[in-house]
């Protein structure tokens, strides 16, 4: 079954600095990959999704992610962090063959320093 | 429009008590999911409904967990004889129709603490 691994449970960045969150998927090529964000006391919200149409995916709030088959990675980036980006971020993949069943990584908490 | 709502937002139960957690999905959404999120972990799939039919309950941890969606809208997750290991945030999500392209819309969750 497909799974994802998020490297780094906590990331701290300065406001205006690059945000880089790492996600690696298990070896067989997934048809889809997702990044979700969870703000404190709120539900998860979809940031972006990869559906094989393009390897560079742009999402909401200035985030983007690049699918790299050679590295089995789907890292999330934002060029310039904003205070409002402080949240927990989850990478997810459908758990083949039941594609409705999402398998989430353990999450990465982002803090933004003023 | 209104998103997915869950109630209660917080629940404290004594070990051995039964609890019921409610989910109101987005109106018209056919698919409904329950996830369990332990502290410091990502959500784990529990069960999936399409309308009133429970199509997958493979993630329910034990027979103490029971979910229903009798009219194809509101869903209830019931946990009988709660144990300390049941302490977690229970998330509900809905989707217009389940499929790999579709976005699951999540509620804010119910934080269950079993003492």
Would you summarize the structure shown here?
The complex is a heterodimer of chains A (114) and B (115). With 114 residues, chain A is an all-beta fold.
Describe, in plain words, how this protein is organized in 3D.
The complex is a heterodimer of chains A (114) and B (115). Chain A has 114 residues and is mostly beta strands. Chain A is built from no helices and eleven strands. Chain A has strands spanning 4-7, 10-14, 19-25, 33-38, 44-50, 56-58, 64-68, 73-78, 87-95, 98-104, 108-113. In chain A, the strands form two sheets. In chain A, strands 2, 4, 5, 9, 10 and 11 form a six-stranded mixed sheet that branches. Chain A is globular and about 45 Å long. Chain B is mainly beta and 115 residues long. In chain B, 0% of the residues lie in helices and 48% in strands. Chain B contains no helices and eleven strands. Chain B has strands spanning 5-7, 10-13, 19-24, 31-37, 44-50, 53-56, 65-68, 75-79, 88-95, 105-106, 110-114. Chain B starts with a strand and ends with a strand. The model of chain B has no long low-confidence stretch (mean pLDDT 93). At the A-B interface, β5, β9 and β10 of A face β5, β9 and β10 of B.
